[in-house]
Write a structure and sequence with these properties.
alpha/beta, Aspartate Aminotransferase, domain 2, 7-stranded mixed β-sheet, 4-stranded mixed β-sheet
C-alpha cells in the first residue's frame, strides 16, 4: 500500500493502532513492549489516566488564544518549572528544536544587548544532536542532516566531545556561548564527564560567554533527576526541554536565568502555538506525577534493575554486546554486532528500541515501568540475542 506521506522517514513496517501503559498494539492485537517511548517522549507510557483526564478537561475548556492573552495553565507550568529548576524565566514552544533555536537567539541577543555585537558564534560538540531546523542542523554538522540544506557554517564551531583544550582554542572574541547535551542521545547515550562539564562551566564564566544545556531527551526525570545536570552538579544559563515535558503532547520550553532572559523584550521572539493552554495543561499533569522525590527514586531503582540485567546479558553474549552507557532510564547498549541487526531481532521478540550512534541501541522505557516489565524486557532481549547468535 502506497503512502501519501513524504519518504523522509523511509517506509516503516510496523503500524500501531493503540497503546496502553508500556505496550503498543497492532490492528490484529499483536502486543509489543515499548522501550522507545516515542523516543523518550511518552514518559508515562501510553494513555496514562492522569494525562488523559487533563487533556479531556482542558479540551472542553480552552485550546488556544495565542500569546496576545495570558492563560492559567501556561502561567502555572512556567512557575512550576522555575520553582523546580535553576531558571527564573520560561519561553514555551512546540518542540525541542524550537526550544534550542530560542536559546541560540538568546545567546546572541544577550551579547548584542551588552554592546558585544561581534559575539555571535556558538560552539557545540561532535556527535551532538539539537534538532532538525536549520540552526540546530548547522550546530551539529552531521553530514547526513546538512547535505543539500546548509551553505557555510551559519555561525557555529564544533569541537571534539570531551576535548577541553580544543574547546579553549575555539573560544574567540566572537564566541557567544556553548551548547551541549549532558547526556548525548543520538550520539550514542554518552554522559559528559563531570570534570569536563565543570571545566566548561568555568571556561564560560572566565570568558563571559553563556552555557546552554540541551536536555530535550535527558530531562523530565529520564535520568532519575528532573534534569540530568542536577546529577552532574553543573548549572547552565539556558536549558532546552521538550519530549517528556508533554508526555506525548507537543510542547517545548527554553528555561533561562534572569540576566539572560531580561534581554528578550517585547517583540524579540514569539510562537503562535507555543504555550497554548492545551499543551501546558498536559505539561502540568506530567509534573504532577514525575516531580516528586518518590517517583524519581523509583526511576533510579528501575534503572539499577535494568542495568544489572544488562550486565548479565553482556557477559552471556560478549560476541554481540559490549557495554551499557548513560544515566537512569536513558540507557545505551553498545553492540559488537550491528545495532540494526539487534533491533530487528528485538522486533522479532516484540520488543521495541531505538538506534543511536556508536553502534548503540537506545533503551528508553516509560519512567513508570514496573519491575515485572523490566524483567520481561530483559527476557525478550535475551531471546533476541539467542536468535541473533544462532543466525
Amino acid at each position: 500500500m502506497s503512502s501519501a506521506l513524504m519518504a523522509n522517514y523511509g517506509h516503516p513496517e510496523l503500524q500501531f493502532e493503540h497503546g496502553k501503559g508500556v505496550y503498543l498494539y497492532t490492528a490484529d492485537q499483536q502486543r509489543y513492549l515499548d522501550f522507545t517511548a516515542g523516543i523518550a517522549v511518552n514518559c508515562l507510557g501510553h494513555c496514562h489516566p492522569h494525562l488523559v483526564k487533563a487533556i479531556r478537561e482542558q479540551s472542553e475548556r480552552l485550546w488556544h488564544t495565542s500569546n496576545l492573552f495570558s492563560n492559567i495553565p501556561t502561567e502555572r507550568l512556567a512557575q512550576r518549572l522555575v520553582d523546580l529548576s535553576f531558571a527564573d524565566r520560561v519561553f514555551f514552544a512546540n518542540s525541542g528544536t524550537e526550544a534550542v533555536e530560542c536559546g541560540f537567539k538568546m545567546m546572541r541577543r544577550f551579547h548584542y544587548h551588552h554592546g558585544r555585537k561581534q559575539r555571535v558564534r556558538i560552539i557545540s560538540l561532535t556527535q551532538s544532536f539539537h534538532g532538525r531546523t536549520l540552526a540546530p542542523v548547522a550546530a551539529c554538522l552531521n553530514p547526513l542532516h546538512t547535505e543539500g540544506f546548509l551553505v557555510g557554517d551559519s555561525g557555529f564551531d564544533q569541537v571534539p566531545f570531551g576535548d577541553l583544550e580544543a574547546l579553549k582554542a575555539a573560544i574567540t572574541d566572537q564566541t557567544a556561548g556553548v551548547i551541549l547535551e549532558p547526556v548525548q542521545g543520538e550520539g550514542g547515550i554518552r554522559a559528559v564527564p563531570v570534570e569536563y562539564l565543570k571545566a566548561v562551566r568555568q571556561l564560560c564564566d572566565a570568558n563571559n560567554i553563556l552555557l546552554m544545556f540541551d536536555e530535550v531527551q535527558s530531562g523530565m526525570g529520564r535520568t532519575g533527576y528532573l534534569f540530568a545536570h542536577e546529577a552532574l552538579g553543573v548549572t547552565p544559563d539556558l536549558l532546552a526541554s521538550a519530549k517528556g515535558l508533554g508526555g506525548g503532547f507537543p510542547i517545548g520550553a527554553c528555561l533561562s536565568t534572569e540576566r539572560v532572559a531580561e534581554v528578550m523584550t517585547a517583540g524579540t521572539h514569539g510562537s503562535t502555538f507555543g504555550g497554548n493552554p492545551l499543551a501546558t495543561a498536559v505539561g502540568n499533569a506530567v509534573l504532577d506525577v514525575i516531580a516528586t522525590p518518590e517517583f524519581l527514586q523509583q526511576v533510579q531503582a528501575r534503572s539499577a534493575r535494568l542495568r544489572a540485567g544488562l550486565d548479565g546479558l553482556i557477559s552471556k553474549y560478549p560476541q554481540l554486546l559490549a557495554e551499557h552507557t548513560g544515566l537512569g532510564l536513558m540507557t545505551g547498549l553498545r553492540c559488537v554486532c550491528s545495532n540494526a541487526d539487534l533491533i530487528k531481532a528485538m522486533h522479532g521478540q516484540k520488543l521495541l528500541a531505538v538506534k543511536a550512534g556508536g553502534n548503540s541501541v537506545r533503551l528508553l522505557p516509560p519512567l513508570n515501568i514496573t519491575e515485572t516489565e523490566v524483567d520481561e524486557a530483559l527476557a525478550l532481549l535475551d531471546k533476541a540475542c539467542a536468535t541473533l547468535q544462532k543466525a
